């Protein structure tokens, strides 16, 4: 991508005004994105994006610049212009870049670029037809195929030099059900750090049926009652609640500035003793996994909360300097156009000892949130609200009728304290998370959990 001598010259230029640390991030990305609406391909885009990001530290400050012109003279020019923001004495420094070997956990059997586009369109057609044929109430289906190959080279003035290839593939279907002038949406979108072989494990017809099942169930549902009640949140996409309401507050991006409710709480009880929460970027072929983070640090399994005790944060290099902590391999960025910061990979609540059946049968009355949708959170306070994509009432220890329009309202740290049952059926759901360093693929996950008391917003009124 760039040879060693060019990289060294660019790093020297970046440090020419007295910076403490310099880094170069080279990215060469290929992707395919195909959308099908109503059974017809609406757009099909295949492209390449190449660029170089240059970052400089001076004390606890950072300067970032990027370009898609990789000629040596231009890279040196960009590095020197960025370095002008630093007014300090130049330090004597000798670079000795040593290329590191990658421990590749994510073996790819079939590169997506080797699969014919006609095969990708065929998958979309099959998923569409399955979703559309599910029920006459399904009035619109959108299917999407996505793959990418991201080649990166990361080097810095501490001597690091590493290259990696990242491959991801995802298949998504959104179904719309309509009745009496109202609509409800169902969505399902599995993916992984895998090649085209992912379709040996993803049945696109089942993806279509699942999206339509949710939409049909919710269009026929009554409105959800409101009030404070026990809420059982299912596995897979239920994990988005922990991701948004608690996970972001554990990122050093916010902790280092003390704009997180979890700042200065290491070693304290912040959750029920039943809760152990983990972020793990090393799980083979999972959607949010990486061999190395976007600063070149090996990813790792980070236990954030253990038996309710706050054990760790998600830390990148710059915020680690501010906090006096080492990186946890958690630096991520959307592309070379963004400087990295601390982000989640595969974040989940670990398995407990209760079965799904025990959790439901011991709940006299409440809400079963089978799938969560979108929401918002304030990392400084942990205040959140989340839409329930698919919900049901629990009555006399049994799941009864479906309900729609439910919203979960609360505070992340309070939710953690109020978890009184944790299941043993942990799974992952795939998503894309946005923050200061752009949009990155992340997994959310958990077993079924019960929150003994949570505010539920609904259109039916209190019950």
TrEMBL record:
Species assigned in the record: [Clostridium] ultunense Esp
Span of domain Metalloprotease TldD/E central: 113-218
Domain Metalloprotease TldD/E N-terminal: from-to ranges: 22-83
GO cellular component annotations of the record: cytosol
Coiled coil ranges: none
Keywords, alphabetical: Hydrolase, Metalloprotease, Protease
GO molecular-function terms, A-Z: metallopeptidase activity
Name the record gives this protein: Peptidase U62 modulator of DNA gyrase
Biological processes per GO annotation: proteolysis
All copies of domain Metalloprotease TldD/E C-terminal, residue ranges: 226-458
UniProt record similarity statement: Belongs to the peptidase U62 family.
InterPro entries: Metalloprtase-TldD/E_C, Metalloprtase-TldD/E_cen_dom, Metalloprtase-TldD/E_N, Peptidase_U62_metallo, TldD, TldD/PmbA_N, TldD/PmbA_sf
Keyword Transcription regulation: no
